[in-house]
Every structure is written in C-alpha cells, then in structure tokens.
Specification:
Helix content is 50%, strand content 16%. Helix 10 packs across helix 11 and helix 10 crosses helix 15. The protein is globular. 49% of the residues are buried.
Length: 408
C-alpha cells in the first residue's frame, strides 16, 4: 500500500508535532509505505535542530520525507507558489513508486493532492481540517460572499466532488459534507476522524481531589487572534475573579505574545492574573496537568463541524473543558459525558453562571478519570489510523485484485 501523504503544515511546528507525525508513524507501522510532503516554516528551518529531529523520527518509522518551504507573503502569490511546488514535488516523489492513494490534508494540501492524484492516477482521500473558506470569513480575513470567499468555496466543493473518500472532523461536519450535491451523487464515503491525540504522550496526569476550592487555574493552549477569542476568555476570567476566587489564566502559544497581551488587555483582565509562555511540544502534557480546566472560545459564524485538538489534549490529561457553542461534536460530548461546560453567552452574568457550573464540576472526584475516558472514546489516534487503513484498503482492493489477475 503506497500512500502519498500531503499536508500544508510543517512537521516541525506544533500542529505537525500533534497531528501529523504520530499519525504517519502509526500508518507506517500498520503497513503503509508512506511518503510525507510538508511545508516547513522558515524559523524551524533556520534553527536546524527541529528539522533534524523530525528527519530522525521519520527515518526510524521508514517514512520518506519531502520537505518543502512554506511561503507566507504576499499571501496569494505565495500560496500559489506553494501549490505549484507541492504538485511538482509530489508528482516527482510518486514517479519512482506510483502511489495507490494520495491522502491530502488541509485545504491547500487538498488542492495539491487533487492535482497530484490525477497526474499519478491514484485514489484521492481528502482529509477535511475545517471549512477553510468560511473560517477565513469568521476570522475576519475575508468578507462573506467576496470574490475570494466564493472562489475558495468553489474550489472546496470541487475537492469534495472529486474525492474518492472524505475524512470529516466531526459528525456535524460529516452531515454538512454529505448534503453537498457532488458528494451525494458520487456516493464517496465520508468517515468521521477527529483531530486525534497521541494518548501515549498525553497521559492521565490529574488525580481526583487535588482541586483547591478557592483557587482555580485555567489554561488556554493554541493559536490566538482571528477566530480564537482570547479577549473573551480574558473577560470570562475577569468575571470569575469577581466572585472572590483566586482565578488565574495561563496561555500556552506559539503565536506572537504581543498579540496575546493586547487581546487579554481588551478583556479587562488584571496583568497579575495571567501569564504567557511558549513550550516545546514534549512539555505540554505536564504543563496542562498543572491546571484545573482548559478553555477554548471561538467566534460564532459560518464554520462549524471542527474538532479542536486542544480539547482532546485537555481531556487526555484529566482536565474538563470550558467552551463556546457550535464546536463540532464538543457540545454534545460535554453535555452527555459531564466533561466540561458550555458558555452560552458573553455577558458578565452568563460568565459568572458558567464559572459557578465549572466550580460544581471541579468538586466531582471522578472528573479526571471521566475526562480521560472521553479522550479515549473520541480522540483515539490508534482507532483513527485503523479507520484510515480500512479506507485505503477499500479504495485500492479492486485495483490490487485486477493487478493480481493480470499477473496470473
């Protein structure tokens, strides 16, 4: 089984460390002959050490790596150049051993994979990582129904229409994709594969009964700005502090710290109530576990159906999650399994009510274990990789039978 795995992230950046490397290692261990194509950020390339560490790790897993350089500005020409070099290098990588499957992850990765699959006569698996055109609108990058939004939406629909199989991040995302006319007509399988967590690395580190009633430590892990409402998180923490508890927020991000500080200042959160740091990925599990709960607030908007990796990481180490609504399947899991709270509104009263709900939850002696079970049930990377191998086999079994018959 030869798989060309294309993703428009860097293997050395946090998303690559969290989502890509653990996945390709497991797929390779399950028998896939993998070529990984990534786009590395300039900072990681200049440092050298992160790239060498990735290369060593991939060699140990027998994964061939095609490392390309990510270009950021000017945005449209840079992305077009990345697409062109991605297609060219992917096709060259496939000429020696023609891939059976092109697994294209992320929107730009999907567009690269669409061309590469056609040029190599491979089957295309499109791995949805969110509804990119709508996310750009929700982030304030594009205006709804602008030329950029409509063009990207057309390309996204074309991807869904041409894919032989589609991986959705949540059941709500799956429902949205399956309603698209092109998907209905083609009858391509749509399989739910969340942004899973390496549960071997993110272990249960919280213990029952270690919460101090008058002191609450909250953590936010991930990008800031755009759709990610760190300013609203700041207001939530400020409202929580007005209940008289010692509530503090830690922000763990690789984003610009000045942007994070500016967003928190909008939330009227006192400067002594928060901290910001950038940690190596290996240190994140232990750092998360030193807190009481994780938070993640998103802008309401056009995009939904996601599966935030940080939620699975919070749960895996034993933290409940405080989230805003319409975050893929997260709301339903929280309400059904008691592993967090949903913050329905952004008034001071609603924030304080939500915080009181969180305090009640934190008194539950079985909370940490329940969070871990939710991570294992909904963010299990091993299960996700088994599903992907089944998809690969389903798409290529007919071709392999034909080849075998021809040899006979």
């Amino acid at each position: 089984m030869k798989v060309l795995y294309i993703v428009y992230w860097g293997a050395a950046e946090p998303l690559g460390q969290s989502l890509v490397l653990p996945a390709v290692e497991r797929l390779s261990a399950r028998g896939a002959s993998l070529t990984l194509v990534t786009f590395e950020k300039a900072g990681d390339v200049e440092q050298g050490a992160p790239i060498r560490a990735v290369a060593k790790r991939l060699r140990a897993s027998n994964v061939r790596w095609v490392m390309l350089h990510y270009h950021k500005r000017p945005k449209v020409p840079a992305t077009a150049w990345d697409w062109a070099q991605g297609v060219a290098r992917s096709v060259v990588a496939g000429t020696g051993a023609r891939p059976d499957v092109v697994h294209a992850r992320t929107f730009i990765g999907g567009l690269i994979g669409l061309a590469a699959a056609r040029l190599t006569s491979a089957r295309l698996v499109y791995h949805n990582e969110g509804f990119y055109p709508d996310e750009q609108v929700d982030s304030g990058v594009w205006v709804r129904d602008s030329l950029a939004h409509r063009l990207a939406g057309y390309l996204e629909r074309r991807l869904y229409r041409r894919a032989d199989a589609i991986l959705a991040m949540s059941h709500s995302g799956k429902d949205r994709i399956e309603r698209l006319p092109g998907v209905r007509e083609r009858k391509a399988p749509v399989v739910v594969v969340p942004s899973c967590v390496d549960l071997d690395r993110f272990k249960l580190l919280k213990t029952s009964g270690d919460h101090h009633e008058g002191r609450v430590r909250l953590v936010y892990s991930g990008s800031v700005g755009g759709r990610y409402r760190l300013d609203a998180i700041g207001r939530f923490v400020a409202a929580a502090r007005r209940t008289g508890r010692d509530v503090r927020l830690s922000v763990m991000t690789h984003s610009n710290h000045e942007i994070a500080r500016e967003l928190l200042s909008r939330g009227s959160l006192a400067s002594d109530a928060w901290s910001i740091e950038t940690l190596p990925h290996a240190d994140v599990p232990q750092a998360l576990a030193s807190h009481d709960a994780g938070v993640h607030f998103l802008n309401p908007g056009l995009s939904d159906g996601g599966s935030p990796t940080k939620i699975g990481e919070y749960w895996a180490v034993g933290l409940p999650a405080a989230v805003t609504p319409r975050m893929g399947d997260t709301d339903a899991i929280i309400q059904r399994e008691g592993v967090g709270i949903v913050v329905d509104g952004h008034s001071d009263v609603e924030y304080r009510q939500a915080f009181e709900q969180l305090l009640v939850l934190l008194r539950d002696s079985g909370l940490a274990q329940r969070c871990r079970r939710s991570a294992e049930a909904h963010y299990n990377l091993d299960v996700a990789c088994d599903q992907q191998m089944q998809i690969y086999d389903r798409l290529t079994s007919g071709a392999r039978r034909t080849t075998a018959c021809a040899r006979v």
